[in-house]
Amino acid sequence: MYSYEAYDAWIENLIKAKSSPNFRRPRPWRSAQESRMVRRFVFQWHTCRDNRPSGRAWARDLGVSHTWLQELVREFREDPTEVRQLQAYGDPKVGDLSRARENTRQMRERGELRLSRREKWSKFYERFPVAKPV
């Protein structure tokens, strides 16, 4: 996919960028509570044995991408300590997820989280409305 030279240059540039005084970590997409709840629901899906929905359907219901769901499952397989922590929390509840989503919504309103493309475009069109043809 990448040549070793390109990869080395990429790593060098990344190190340079992170050492810059202007570097800021990107804002998260969702609150830490919602991320934790999503992890718990993905773990529940992963350990479910009978009548398990597809990963894409489960991810769509959680409001995440199926690739992130697959990444989480890969992390669960590689890191048993996280699995034990998730088991200690017990089964996730939909009410907890809705409270976490409310927290995410409030953080987004305060500008603490990233905006999706749709939100960015809607803000743009609020500032610069498109002239409607007559």
Q: What would you say this structure looks like, in words?
A:
The chain has 134 residues and is mainly alpha-helical. It has a domain of 86 residues. Helices cover 67% and strands 0% of the residues. Helix 2 runs antiparallel to helix 3, helix 2 crosses helix 4 and helix 2 runs antiparallel to helix 6. The radius of gyration is 20 Å and the shape is extended. The model has no long low-confidence stretch (mean pLDDT 89).
What's the gist of this structure?
By secondary structure, the protein is mainly α. The chain has 7 helices and no strands.
Number of helices: 7
Radius of gyration: 20 Å
Instruction: Tell me, rounded to a whole number, the average pLDDT.
Output: 89
| Class from secondary-structure proportions | mainly alpha
Please bin the fraction of helical residues: 55-70%
- Stretches where pLDDT falls below 50 for ≥5 residues? none
